[in-house]
Structures are given as C-alpha cells and as structure tokens.
Amino acid sequence: MSFNDLGLTPELARAVAEKGYTTPTPIQRAAIPGVLAGRDVLAGAQTGTGKTAAFVLPILQKLATQSGRLPRALVLTPTRELAAQVAESAREYGRHVNLRTLVIFGGVSEKPQIEALRSGCDLLV
Q: 65-117: per-residue pLDDT in tens?
C-alpha cells in the first residue's frame, strides 16, 4: 500500500515522498482513510510511528479542498516542543498546497503571535 492508495491528493503524496516516505505505517493506514471519510478516530502508537502524519495529512487535505473562516483547524498539544514539531510537520507536508500554518504558545512575547494571528492562518497549533 502506498500513500496514494490512502486517498491523499497528489500534492500531499508528493510532499510525503519528498520526505523519503514510501509506505504508510500501521497507524497511518488505520487512521488516514477514516479521518478523510469524516469519522472520528481515536488511536495510539509508540513514538516514531508516524502519528503526526496520521492526523496532519488528512487535516491538510480537508483544508486544501474546502473553504471557511480562518483559522479553520486547531491542534492542541501538551507542550510547546510538540506544538513546534506538529507545526513544522504541517508546513513540510503542506508545502505544495496554499495553506498557512501558525504555532502559538506561552512563555514568549504575545505581540508577534497576535500580529501573526491577525494576518490569518488555516491551521493553528
């Protein structure tokens, strides 16, 4: 099974291939089709198994194919490090689609984050 077989758009599949991934992991095979079909998915897997891609790729696909108010998707994480990682993954996977990802967190100056929010984003982490 390839990422194309999961129903991802060519742009997202291309970004995945550019990162060097050719075959989806078990968590990705289980989660991506369900999320793309609009189902709620609750899943768990060990570190390094591709969980971020399992939820970010379908979110990006939905955002790329539908319009709405900004921000259109929100991802909450327990730590700023994980927030930064998720946002970076979203930017990398979404490099071939016209979407803007923004990450905000505490412990840093609020003003630049407020200005960035005002300029708009599709995915807010």
A: 888 778 999 999 999 999 999 999 999 999 999 999 999 999 999 999 999 99
Supply 69's token pair. 């108010």
State which amino acid sits at residue 66. Q
Residue partners of 88: CB distance under 8 A and separation at least 6:
none
Single pTM value for the model:
0.91
Provide the 10 A C-beta neighbour count for residue 51: 18
Q: Write the single-letter amino acid at 123.
A: L
Task: Give alpha helix (H) positions in the chain.
Answer: 10-18, 26-36, 51-65, 80-93, 110-119
Instruction: Please give the domain boundaries of the chain with CATH numbers for all domains.
Output: 3-124 (3.40.50.300)
φ, ψ of residue 73 to 5 degrees: the values are -145, 145
